[in-house]
Design goal:
Length: 71
């Protein structure tokens, strides 16, 4: 039985890369997590009022984790 795409997506939405880690993709998980942190820092430095932009990597990581679980 394969891993759940929904759970992978939820985990990656909560913490970018956690869904990939759940799927056993350690390098991909680290890349998503590091990228999300970097993106959040840059987004906050440029326009602090747009904090919600930092959700973009979480949404993209969830979509990626779901697609990887289905593959």
């Amino acid at each position: 039985m394969g891993k759940s795409p929904r759970l992978a997506a939820l985990l990656s939405f909560l913490v970018a890369g956690l869904g990939q880690l759940y799927l056993g993709q350690v390098v991909r998980a680290g890349a998503w997590f590091g990228g999300a942190i970097l993106f959040g820092i840059v987004a906050y430095a440029v326009v602090p009022e747009w904090w919600f932009v930092s959700l973009v990597p979480a949404v993209l990581a969830s979509l990626d984790a779901s697609a990887q679980a289905r593959a």
